[in-house]
Amino acid sequence: MRPLFLEAIAQWPADRVALQTDSGAFSYGYLRKAAQCVADALRDALSSDVGARILMPAWPDWQYVATLWGVWQGGGVAVPFSLGATAEELSYLITDSEATALVCPAVLAPMLRPLCVAMGIGFWEVETVVATQPAPTEWPAIQPAARALMIYTSGTTGKPKGAVHTHGSLAAQIQTLVTAWQWQATDKTLLTLPLHHIHGLVNILGCGLWAGATVVILPKFDAGKVWEIFAQSDFTVFMAVPTIYSLLVEAYRAASPAQQAGYTQACQAMRLMVSGSAALPVTLLNAWQEISGHFLLERYGMTEIGMAISNPMEGFRKAGSVGKPLPGVSIRLVDEAGQVIAQAHEAGEIQVKSPCMFLEYWRKPDITKASFSAEGWFKTGDIAEQDEEGYYKILGRNSTDIIKSGGYKLSALEIEGVFLQHPEVAACAVVGLPDERWGEVVAMAVVMQAAASSAAPDLLHWGKAYLASYKIPKQVIVVAELPKNAMGKVVKNEVKQWFAKE
Ligand code: MLC
Ligand code: AMP
To answer: Between 196 and which of 13, 58, 176, 276 could a Cys-Cys bridge form, CB atoms 3.0 to 4.6 Å apart?
Structure first.
């Protein structure tokens, strides 16, 4: 059988527009054929290993879709990575995923080919591959249980881990949302989120194309451009992280009254606007409603579990709440003593069972096992409470080592691990501080070696060679020592208070 996703999109007419990008308009037929070419070119790389991992940059254009579908067609596992990844981060992904090849658009070839050659993995340019004619072939049958996608996600264990989804768990994620949010072939959505995380990849691109809709890609978020594009077109659906809504509100307020009227009208013509990936402040929800007429649909999800809890498409949406479990998803809250919470308004960790659940952390069976309770509930690390009407409210997380900045999940341990390699750093502690625009920002308290000559800005500049720039601390203080508890562990809450005082 064909991969479930490819089965779903096979029904859409060849000439229907699937994507509109800076490069032009691309039909379902064109993308299906391009995907065949990619699968054909990758035949050897894919047959060397069942579920061979193929790296692909999150390039926001048709080449991404052709590669994704081609990898799936040939039975491979797509491993998208951030366009902001440093060579260091990319080398880690190649090694950790044990990738056999990397496929990218021609424009990135000068940057990526040398690394692939140095690391001994295959390399293909999409445009070259697509210019050839695919051989008529029988493709392997791909079962729903087969691995399909690996998303690198940060956690409390330092370096990012590859969260593996199968064709079945991906299809479940998409079908759940297509039904819950009533995606239609007549929909048109604007995608301005990165394609190496599920918000952009599954919720927007995946759902849109599965449903036969048109996905318009704005490759680099720009609030002014988003408003202009909204005003000039007939979008029906928009999804983004709270930081984007905040930037859009700012840009709206800076626009002229005539522009504002056009922007408001464009929003009012849409049928659905969704926020997720981080907490949506009620003030922002209200500001958005004022300018757009939309009460944002807030939902809660995670790379490992897909979307789990959502306010309804129709019916009552509650401000400050993420709603109720999506169909097929079971949720329980568990307190620190491991007891399941039975009462409203008691806080506990969200634990999940769902058909959308990931399969494993790649090559990390112990960590995978430890992420589930003995009864098979996935432990999210997020703390929530439920009200009498069954609506969930996210209260925070059970780890200070996870930071959510502008929708990206960042690991304090990963960032500390890098700065500790600086020859003049004796110790450091990375924390997340509350921030109106980003939700949280990364801050670092650092203890320098006695004879150190580097200043904080030099340190941050140095860090950019190793970490994508959105992981670099936005605030730094140099301190004499870090606060530690009796066990010798840094007390991160105390570090946070230092910054609050500053
Ligand atoms: C950019 N910068 C950030 C940042 N994004 N810093 C901290 N946190 C971020 N999220 C920094 C850059 O490194 C750069 O620093 C400077 O800000 C300007 O960069 P930019 O690229 O021009 O910024 P901008 O385009 O404004 O990006 C903001 C953004 C982007 C909100 C559009 O961060 C974004 O796309 N976020 C969405 C991430 C996402 O999709 N998350 C979903 C995960 S899935 P310098 O120093 O170089 O100038 C998930 C599950 C679920 O969470 O439930 O959905
Ligand atoms: P990621 O690991 O990048 O998939 O991010 C998932 C995390 O984002 C969750 O564990 C939550 O901490 C956070 N998150 C997602 N949606 C929401 C939301 N609506 N409100 C608060 N936090 C959210």
So the answer is: 58
